[in-house]
Amino acid sequence: MITAVTEFTVAAPAQGAFENNCTAGMRATLSNVPGLRNARLLRPRKGAHGYLAVLNFEDDAAFTAYTSSEAFRAAHADPTHSLSDDNRVTVFEAVTQG
User: Fold this and answer.
1) pTM confidence score
2) DSSP secondary-structure letter at 2?
3) What is the pLDDT of residues 8-29, one digit of tens each?
4) Separation in Å, CA 91 to CA 14, 16, 25, 87
């Protein structure tokens, strides 16, 4: 399994709009992505740093196909990204699964 995590830093006044826009964007662009097991937007708890968008793919082939797909282009053209002050993507490979 491959997990792609994008961390977004969002100023407090923009958090509500970010959550609404990002959630709608994920629903609109990710529903039919082959090999995508699930996608979640995680809100930071008090004292935590930023929002996390977590996408889990069946394997590296599914992740690679997604990064060159129309769904990927649509998701990254979303104006939600302009509500964040910064973002960082990290891709992980599962070592164990439970």
Assistant:
1) 0.87
2) E
3) 999 888 899 999 989 998 999 9
4) 26, 26, 20, 14
